Amino acid sequence: MNDTPTLNGEGRHAHQHDLRAFKGVEAWVFDLDNTLYPASSDLFSQIDARISDYIARTLDMPHDEARTKQKAFYRDYGTTLRGLMLEYDIEPDAFLEYVHDIDYSPIDPNPELGRMIANLPGKKFIFTNGDKPHAERTAERLGISDQFDDIFDIVAAGLLPKPNLEAYNLFMKQTGVAPARAAMFEDLARNLEVPHKLGMRSVLLVPDGTRAVFREEWELEGANAPHVDFVTDNLAGFLKAVNGALTQGAA
């Protein structure tokens, strides 16, 4: 793997492996937040703020303490909800409804992304640590709802989030996806470690650098990790290149 990203036509980072590696992929699995839409849209920042508010109200603590607890849970458990459930026995439905009560207008429709997903051979899935209603609203805003065969959410995963192995096992059991014939797209490198070990091609989405995007330092780590096969800051452009490589390979 090339450790030094370079400029190319499909985004800030060079593709790290030959795109013909996607030949034989029959299932395309996409994370939702900061993956199907760019981190620069700031949609997730609304969810982030509402999670802090929920913790402050529910646990009756100052906002700065709530924020610290939120980030520790997210880092240690995969989602803040998981930490709240394990340490405070929080009821998940109320949490999910509250934190996803947001304004979706910052997301712009992305017809090019829809076309590129539609052109991929095989089935397409959303696999999210959020809930299905949030995924549906987001996909509708992007204009890509019709491109997916199923949405696998945190509820379907038994409230066990990525990067836990059991979440991926439940996803594969429900969808019938065979890892050796699948590719996964994520904005967190740690969520690609298990898919890569299972045999999936792994693609990391990174912020495009056109504006400041607030992320925890650990969230931005791992672009050069051995379990990350490809890195891109332009999902539609990357998928266009993949479709092109597959078409050439079939010629």
3D shape: globular
Which topology of the largest domain does CATH recognise?
Rossmann fold
Strand content: 5-15%
The H-and-E topology, N to C, reads as: EHHHHHEHEHEHEEH
Polypeptide structure, described:
β2 (123-127), α6 and β3 (150-152) form a beta-alpha-beta unit. The protein has two domains: 19-39 and 110-250, HAD superfamily/HAD-like (Rossmann fold, 3-Layer(aba) Sandwich), CATH 3.40.50; 43-99, DNA polymerase, domain 1 (Orthogonal Bundle). A six-stranded parallel β-sheet has the order 3-2-1-4-5-6, with helices on both faces. It has helices at 43-59, 63-77, 80-88, 92-99, 111-119, 132-142, 165-175, 193-198, 235-250; strands at residues 27-30, 123-127, 150-152, 182-186, 201-205, 230-232. Mean pLDDT is 88; it is low at 1-15 and 210-215. It has 251 residues and is α/β, with parallel strands linked by helices.
Main features:
DNA polymerase, domain 1; 6 strands; disordered N terminus; alpha/beta; 10% strand; 251 residues; Rossmann fold; 2 domains; globular; six-stranded parallel beta sheet
What's this entry about, in short?
The protein has 251 residues and is an alpha/beta fold. It is built from 9 helices and 6 strands; from the N terminus they run E-H-H-H-H-H-E-H-E-H-E-H-E-E-H.
Give the secondary structure arrangement, pairings included.
Blueprint: E1 27-30, H1 43-59, H2 63-77, H3 80-88, H4 92-99, H5 111-119, E2 123-127, H6 132-142, E3 150-152, H7 165-175, E4 182-186, H8 193-198, E5 201-205, E6 230-232, H9 235-250
Parallel strand pairs: 1-2, 1-4, 2-3, 4-5, 5-6
Helix pairs in contact: 1-2, 2-3, 5-9
